[in-house]
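Usage

Read records sequentially. Each one opens with the input sequence:
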Amino acid sequence: MGKQRRDVRSEDQWRVDSLYLSLKEWEAQFPKWGGEERESKWPEIGAFKGRLGEGEEVVKEVIDTLLCIERKLEKLFTYAHLRQDEDLRAEEPKKALMRITSLHYEFAKETSWIQPELLQLDEERLQKYLESPLLLPYKIYLQRIVRLKPHTLSQKEEALLALSGNALEVSRRAFGAFNDADLKFPEVEDSQEKKRELTHATYHRLLRSKDRKLRKEAFCAMHESYRQWENTLSELIFGQVQNHLFQMKARKFSSCLQAALFPHQIETKVYTSLIETVRNHLSSLYRYMQLRKRVMGVEELHLYDLHAPLISLQEEEISYGQAVQYVKDAVVPLGQEYQKELSFGFQEGGWVDRYENEGKRSGAYSSGCYDSMPFILMNYEGALRDVMTLAHEAGHSMHTLLSNRHQPYHYSHYPIFLAEVASTLHEELLLDHLLARAESKERRAYLINQRIDDMRATFFRQVMFAEFEWKLHSCAEEGTPLTPGLLKREYKKLNEDYFGPGVFIDPLIEIEWARIPHFYYNFYVYQYATGISAAYALFEKIKKEGQAARNRYLRLLSSGCYEFPLRLLQEAGVEMLKPEPVLSFIRHFDSLVQELDVLLA
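and closes with the structure output:
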C-alpha cells in the first residue's frame, strides 16, 4: 500500500497554505466573493447595468470591479483544485471545488450583460472610450471586446448562452467520469505467464516493456475495453462536437475551426498549413519506422512496438535533488536570474508536490493564479522521463511567474497557443545538456532515441489528432452523424496514412479515438505541434545569437496576453504564418534519426 497524504514530509509538498492556511480559512473567504445565498450575488456589478454609456468613469469602475472579483474567484478555485488533487478521495476539497466551479458559472451568467451592453453603444462613443487616457490601462482589453462585436449577441441571448454553459459541458464531464472512475481494465499476462495490472497509469509503462507479448496484451486489452462501449462513446464525442457546432452557429462563425481560433486572432491557415506541411513530409516518420523495424529485428512492426526501447541500457535512478540540478544546469543559457528563480521554486520555494501518495492525481501539471506562486504536481519516480517532465512543467511555471510579474492581472493569462513553447524549450535545453555530458555511444543513442519518440508523440501524433478533430467537426457541419463506423474508418485511415507502409496497422487501433480526452477540448491538440516547432526555433536562436535572442525570449515569457500570440512570437523572431518553423523542426527530427541510425549501425 502506498504512502498516505498525512505521512508525506512537508518538504516534499507544495506550499498550498501560502494561498489559504486551511480549508476553514477558505470557507471563511468564500461568502465574501459571491458564495452567500442571495438573489444577486454581486450587486456591486449589477448596479452598473444600463449605465455603460454614461462615460469612461463608469466603464473603468465596472471593469475594475469585475476584475477584482474574478481575481478572488480564481484564487479560491486554485486552492480548491490543488487540495483536491492531493487526494481525490477526500470529500471536503471535492465539495469546495464543486462549489467554486458552480460559482464561476453563476458569475459568468451575472456578468454576461457587460460585453453586449458595451457593444450596443454607437461607434463614436466606443472610439472615445478606446482613446480615453482614463481607460488607457484597459485599451487592449476593450479593443478585444470590440473585435468580438460581429459575434456578440443581445444581453438576453448572451445570458442564455452563459446559462447553457454548464449543460453543454455534460458530454465532456461524462466522458471524464467514465474514463477516470468507471472504466476498468482486465489484468494482462507477460511471456512468463505473470499477471500484470493494466490501468491508465501503467499502460505506457507496459508498452515500453521489452516483453513483446506483454506489450501486445496491454494494447489489445486497453482498446478492447473501449470497443465494448463504442456506441456510448461515439454519442459522447458527438455531443461535445454538437456543443462546438451550437456555439459556432450562435455566434455566426463560418466553421467550428474559425470559432475556436478567432479569440486569439489565429488564422485558420495556421491550422490547415500545419497539417498540409506535415502530410508532405511524412517520409521523415516513415524513415524512423523503418529504422525501428530493423533495429528491433521484427518481421512486422506493430503499433504496440512503437514505445519499446531500442537500446538496452540500465537506466540510473535519479534522485529528485539530482533532477533539480540537471534542470538548473540546463537552463544556464537563459541567464543567472532565471536559473536562480527556478532553483528557489524547486527547493525552498515550495512550488513542487514531488512524489506519489494514495489518492493523488496521476500525471503532472503546472498551475497557480495571479496571487500565488506557481505550483507543480509531480509523481516523481526517478526515471529520466520524470526529469524531462519536471523540466517541462518548470517551463510552464516560469512562464506563469514572469507573465504575472510583468503584466497587470487582465493581461497576465498567456494564451494556450503559447503555453507549450516555454515547456518544450526547457526539454530541448535539457536534452542538449544531457547529450553534452553523455559518456558513451550507448548513452547518447539512448537519449536520442527517447527524444525522437517524444517528438513523434508530441508532433506527428498530435497533428494526426488535429486532422481527425477537423474531420469530426467538418462532418458535423455537413450534417453527417458521427456513428461508430464513421469514426473508426476515419481514424484507421489516418493511422495508415501517418505511419506508412512500414507499420502493420492493428485493427483495434480504429477505436483509439474513444480514449483520447483531448477530443473533448476545442481544437487544442494542434498547439502541441505549433508549440514544439516554435520552441525549437527559439532554442536554435538562443544557441546561435546568445544574449539578444535570450532577451527576446524572456520578453515573450513576460508578455502574458498583452498582444495576440502570433504577434508575440513574431517579436521573438518566429513567424508561424510561414511553414519554416515546422519544416525546421522536421529537419531536426530527420537529423536525430540519421544520427541514431549511425550510432546503432
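Summary fields computed downstream for this record:
- Residues 417 and 527 are 6 Å apart (CA to CA).
- Strands lie at 188-189, 195-196, 352-353, 365-367, 375-377.
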